[in-house]
Amino acid sequence: MKYLLSAVIVLGLLAGAVWAQESDQPSTAAADTAVSADTVSVAPPAPVGNLRAYDSDNDHGHAVTLEWELSPDDGGGDNSVLMYEVFRWYPYFWDTVQEVRAELVTARQRRVQGTLDVEGDPDDYVKELVSRHTELLSTLPEAHEQYPDDGEFRLVRAVPAGTEKFEDRGPKDRLAEDFLPDYCDFYYRVDAVTIDESVRTPSQIVGPVQSYGQWFNTGRIVVLCFVLVFGLLTILFVQRARSGAELYVRPIAGIEAVDDAIGRATEMGRPILYVLGLGTAADVATIASFTILSRVAKQVAEYQTQLIVPTYDPIVMSVAQEVVKSAYLDAGRPDDYSQDIVYFVTQSQFAYVAAVNGVMLRERPATNVYMGMFHAESLLLAETGAIAGSIQISGTDQMAQLPFFIVACDYTLIGEELYAASAYLGREPVLLGSLKAQDVAKAAVVLFALIGVIVTTAGSSVFQNLFKVTD
Amino acid sequence: MKRQLPLALVFLFGVFMIFQYFVPHEKSEYVYEFLLDWIYIIGIFALALGIWSLFRVSVERIKLRKEGATYSYVALIGLYLMIAFGFTAATGDGGALSTSYYIWLLLGVVCLALVMRARAETASGRKKLLALGTLVFLVGFVLMSIFDDSWAYHFYTAEGLSNPMFRIFFDYVMMPILATMFALLAFFIASAAYRAFRARNLLATLLLLAALLVMCRFNPYLPGIDFIAKASNWLMNVPNLAAQRAIVMGVGLGMVATALKVILGIERGYMGK
After folding, report:
1. Domain of A130, in residue numbers
2. ipTM field
3. Any idea of the CA torsion for B238, B240, B242, B247, to the nearest 10 degrees?
4. Are A164 and A78 found together in one domain?
5. Any domain includes A408
6. Closest-CA residue to A411 (of A275, A263, A257)
7. Which of A206, A263, A265, B162 could make an SS bond with A366 (beta carbons 3.0 to 4.6 A apart)?
8. Is any Cβ of chain B less than 8 angstroms from the Cβ of A322?
């Protein structure tokens, strides 16, 4: 019955996919619309008003923001404005800088390809170009001070009618063509342009304005406050725990099952498979997984059971080897440790799945533990483990994979339970203290959410704005 | 010192990373990017360790004649071939590979297979014979590497990626295999869905009904589709989203707490403590 139902679902899915593909054919009836450009005689529009330019907030520099009031002929009046063109004043010196830049970029590319044909050492040639380019860039501020002599306004970007704000942002890479240097006096102009591009009205010129980077992102004050408060709470509860206060932590079935699962594997004389997921050593889920692996490896060493840890990331492999080695040492069985317990498989997602599934079906581990960051491979692994008849314990912070693990595994650590596992397994007061801090923070979040709902329902956005974070 | 230094480094760089988030200045970004570059550098060295680990484990499997040791031959020869393709390219115009290039590749494969076989062999006489055979093929392999001008090594440039065999193996061997693995997901979802939606108790029945409702949302020919669409949207946007947000908040706080514990040296699991 099970297989019949599975087959029916699969056939249904395939039939649905075929039908969807057929119905998704592009319509041949769609006619090409040809737009004919008629010559229209229009009067010059009114210019934009109150043009302002200032350095963009909370960034690394290389950006200037322009704001203006719409031309009276944009959306009203003659309604003749089609777009606005933003112009910036460039010194002619800029062209020299660009020539050297282009030469440098080409030289570097050819140097890498080995096709740079110059007299003398190619590296010296590139170095010389770099120093020349750097020197020219350093004199750019002086060139900008020559305004309005030795330069001209050039188009930066065209924006559609109805736009009141534009950010002239350049990359910080000095070798980029549209690099926008800091600490230079820039001058801007915005033209209101009609359908006939020759009919336009320039605005007043605004400037000088300089771009520069900020040392503090004021849009993230709320996050800073939260981190500080949460950090203080963590330290407070850790101190309380150290002073001997009893801290209750609710039982987590998935973690309690780890001990039983290791015992089961020992009784059956079959190995334990520990999968750290696809995360890197920098992911919090993987860091939490290392702690659980440490605990599992220690028990495995004590029971003299076999442990298999195939890894996806070579850095994770190196760390996991160290973790398992230390665990065997702590268990008093350093001789039982072998470097082949933790081994690297591949950095290709589905090749990794194929390898781990192969281990499951060949070695028939009694217990499979999946802890860390998982993606599309979660169900492939967990279903194969279920077919192999292993007890399966999983834990991940990836929301999309949780349903798959819940369905296919015997126990699943949901989200933060994965992080709590280290504290729960170790039962160290210091770690339990941090768990309590999390509980208090969660209570605060719930409280703020309730207050926010009430205040917003009452029609005020003051409370919402308090928590606004901007980049 | 062995324990204190890593903790001090973690604290130092951890605190910097926190402050970096609040400092958008170019200098701060420069240090941040410099540190991220180190991840790549460490990653490259770690990859060498990883390949060595894969090599050693595969050889060990062949040596112990474990179940599925044949796959280790495939893994090692595949590893050798892809590395060889990736670092070599034809020297002539058009990039066509010569017959001598394939002979050179084959010599390498035979060398590798003989080494593996010698590792697995227990009889001393045969082992010596295999070692001698390996030496003969290795000499041929090295001589061809030096004197064959129809192809060249490219260790510093990406020219090896233009090797037609590299693309053929990648596009027509690796990609279809990976796609096959991914395609299995559809069948696993079907079997997992069957297990999940069995109406064993009240909660499982509710889950089944909710799933049916959400699935029916995508069928425009069902009678009462408006009601079904509204009901399933409500299910997805209210109870489902509420539960998801609760988990996301927990995960967020857990992440911050774990990061703080690591920075402050409270959590030392990554050091094996």
Report:
1. 49-209
2. 0.88
3. -170
4. yes
5. yes
6. A257
7. A265
8. yes
